[in-house]
Design brief:
Structural class: alpha/beta
Number of helices: 9
Largest sheet: 10 strands, mixed
Oligomer: single chain
Strand content: 25-35%
Number of strands: 16
């Protein structure tokens, strides 16, 4: 199965109410980090090997996984017997998680480039550590394989403030990757990408923004496809968006909860 790369190193400045205390992927929905929700989604479809690109407050992400059993099970500390620790009703995950310090100020492309040695010479999945979706990962991967090109990203239809995609109706090739205009009804990139290892060659250095030169060059070469997803997707850029996700979770109506 493909490895899953998650970008989790940014400062999260637009949700500064919480990100001054913790990295954005560790902000909680239903008392679980949004990073956990993203990983549970991939795991549901059988993708259990993760490479997490850390940066800002990366020690908090590493500590979370180091103490995962303590956070997710009952525990007895027996100080009278050589500090024995016993974990009860432990909920374990079939995950292999590699946490990589990709630098504090590294841009998205640079973070991806830095984990190349952990991915190896094979296709991989990549997404952002702040967006959840009910996307079927297996169908996404099948679509990517059918197209036979270097990169596929998930395109969603939302009335928000992100860069938009012009998509050829027949081939599904992306013909432009540009800024959103006021009257625009186009789809946006939601992450949830499938990338061939040759994509690493499109990234030059730490300062490379993946969404700029690399994706723009892939567009020019006809190597970037769009997987159209019409289901649920929501990023967590602001406190308002975080509160919306929390309300969905607590009400039992969280569309991204595709696992049991």
């Amino acid at each position: 199965m493909m490895k899953v790369v998650i970008l989790a190193g940014g400062f999260g400045t637009r949700i500064s109410e919480e990100s001054h205390l913790r990295p954005k992927p560790m902000i909680e929905i239903g008392e679980k980090p949004i990073l956990w929700h993203i990983m549970k989604g991939y795991s549901h479809f059988g993708y259990n090997e993760f490479i997490i690109c850390c940066g800002y407050k990366q020690q908090m992400i590493k500590q979370y996984f180091a103490d995962y059993y303590l956070y997710n099970g009952d525990v007895t500390f027996d100080f009278g017997h050589e500090n024995n620790i016993k974990i009860h009703n432990n909920v374990s995950e079939p995950w292999k998680v590699t946490l990589v310090d990709t630098g504090l100020n590294t841009m998205t492309g640079g973070r991806i480039k830095r984990i190349q040695k952990y991915v190896g010479d094979e296709p991989f999945l990549m997404t952002y550590g702040d967006g959840v979706s009910d996307i079927n990962i297996n169908r996404l991967v099948e679509f990517h394989k059918e197209k036979g090109q270097l990169a596929t990203l998930t395109a969603v239809h939302v009335g928000q403030r992100f860069g938009v995609l012009d998509i050829d109706r027949e081939s599904r090739n992306i013909t432009a990757f540009r800024e959103k205009s006021q009257a625009d009804g186009s789809r946006i990139s939601a992450g949830f990408m499938v990338l061939e290892p040759k994509v690493f060659d499109y990234i030059e250095e730490d300062n490379t923004v993946f969404e700029k030169e690399p994706l723009e060059r892939l567009v020019q070469e006809g190597q970037l496809n769009a997987y159209k997803h019409d289901g649920f997707w929501q990023c967590m850029d602001t406190q308002r968006e975080r509160d919306r996700l929390e309300k969905m979770w607590t009400s039992g109506n969280a569309p991204w909860k595709v696992w049991d």
